[in-house]
Amino acid sequence: xxxxxxxxxxxxxxxxxxxxxxxxxxxxxxxxxxxxxxxxxxxxxxxxxxxxxxxxxxxxxxxxxxxxxxxxxxxxxxxxxxxxxxxxxxxxxxxxxxxxxxxxxxxxxxxxxxxxxxxxxxxxxxxxxxxxxxxxxxxxxxxxxxxxxxxxxxxxxxxxxxxxxxxxxxxxxxxxxxxxxxxxxxxxxxxxxxxxxxxxxxxxxxxxxxxxxxxxxxxxxxxxxxxxxxxxxxxxxxxxxxxxxxxxxxxxxxxxxxxxxxxxxxxxxxxxx
Length: 273
What we know:
Blueprint: H1 3-17, H2 26-39, H3 45-54, H4 58-68, H5 80-96, E1 102-108, H6 114-126, H7 128-133, E2 135-142, H8 145-153, E3 155-157, H9 158-162, H10 167-173, E4 174-177, E5 180-183, H11 185-188, E6 191-195, H12 201-204, E7 209-213, H13 223-235, E8 237-244, E9 258-263, E10 266-271
Parallel strand pairs: 1-2, 1-7, 2-6, 7-8
Antiparallel strand pairs: 3-5, 4-5, 8-10, 9-10
Helix pairs in contact: 1-4, 2-4
C-alpha cells in the first residue's frame, strides 16, 4: 500500500474513531480495505481511495471505519474478570444496592456481543434469585454497526461458541438452529445494544453505571485520546462502582476518588463512595 493511501485512511479512522494505526500495519489496512472494496463493487483499494478522496460520502466513510475497527472478542474472554464479578463485585453490589434494587452494567466496545452475553449468563447461572427482585440493566455499545447488528441477533456459529463458552452453558442457554446457536430470549432481552463512538461518551451517555467493562480498547488510542475516554468513562461510573480494563492495560490517568484494587486476578478501578 502506498504511503499516501495509508496515511489518508489511518488519519480518517483516527479522526472519527480515535483509533491510531502505527506504521507496520499497512498489510492489515490493505487487506481489510481490499476486501471492503471488492464487496462494494470496486476493483481494488486504490479505486476506493480515489472515490473517497473525490467526494464526501458519509455512508462509505462509515463502511471504511467499520472495516478497520472490528476487534477480537470471545465468550468469557480471559475468564478471571468474570470470576471477579462472580466472587467479589456482584455479591458486594447486591448488598450495597439493596435499597435501590438496581444495578447498571456497561460493556463498552462490546464488538459482536460475547462480553455482555457472558455477563448475562453469569447472572442467570449464579445470581438467579436476585434477578427476580433487582432491576439489572446491561448496556452494550460498539462503534461498528455491523458488529452491533450481529450482537442483536444473538446468533453465533460453532467456532464462536467453542471459544470460551463452557459446553454446559451452551446446552443450557442456547438453542441450535442448523449450523448456528442462538442465545435464549430471556438472556438476550437483558442486553440493550447501541452504536456508540467512545469519543462521544460525554455528549451521548447520560446514564450512570455500577460496573463498566472497557477492555482492549484504549490500547488502540493515542495517549491524549486514552485520557479523554477514560475520564469520560469515570464520569459516568457511580460511586462504589468498578471500572475494568483489559489484563494488559493500566489507567492512563488517576483521580482523587480512584482506588486501584486487585480482586482475585483482576485489576479493578474502584470509585470511592
